Amino acid sequence: MNGLMTARELEAALRELGAQRYHNLHPFHRLLHGGKLDRGQVQAWALNRYCYQSAIPRKDASLIARTDDPDLRRLWRQRLIDHDGEAEGEGGIARWLALTNGLGLDRDYVISKRGALAATRFAVEAYVHFVREQSLLEAVASSLTELFSTTIISERVSGMLAGYSFIDRETLAYFNARLTQAPRDADFALEYVKREARSPEQQQAVLGALAFKCDVLWAQLDALYHAYVEPGHIPPGAFRPGETVR
Hints:
Blueprint: H1 7-21, H2 27-33, H3 39-66, H4 70-84, H5 91-102, H6 107-112, H7 118-133, H8 136-141, H9 149-163, H10 174-196, H11 200-228
Helix pairs in contact: 1-11, 3-4, 3-5, 3-7, 3-11, 4-5, 7-11, 9-10
């Protein structure tokens, strides 16, 4: 569409884009959720995903710092609390470290990100810079992948519990909170962009921001698939399953 869309049409366009480009369609996730990976491959996924999880508060803090709207700051601040917690040992990042610990990864090694793929780090930093440098409207819109996250979380938890003997519900506890947090955050961001995108150019920017975020998530899985599945070219310095971490 080249003209101004109604709010309903914009939402439909966003949902159609997500249906076509969200990373639940990636072959790596199909393998992960289908119980087709080995322990080392699952470890590689969790270790690399930590780079993304740990960057989310930096991304959200940069968005908060950009807006003069106190209502937006107050509402967005909850995302920081969700991931960082109110105290040490709380929040989503702590729960993700519990996941990597449950998979047998050394905590300090995970936090250091030394074993993460370069492509993972580059993709994550591109997202942080996007939110910091693009328009506030685009920054908010880039979070709209959360519209589709409850489906992938449900697939992930059920598939991994059924497919991997080395995983239990405690290991996957991170995802419990996200089943309520992600829809809450997505609902707010969706209403915001529907209200604030008042021109065809702004609406196209919103769609472009969601497409960019889908690309960020997809690129991380491309890197994992290339390094750990097929053709299996693990780059120098990256995590190698079964090797002692130094």
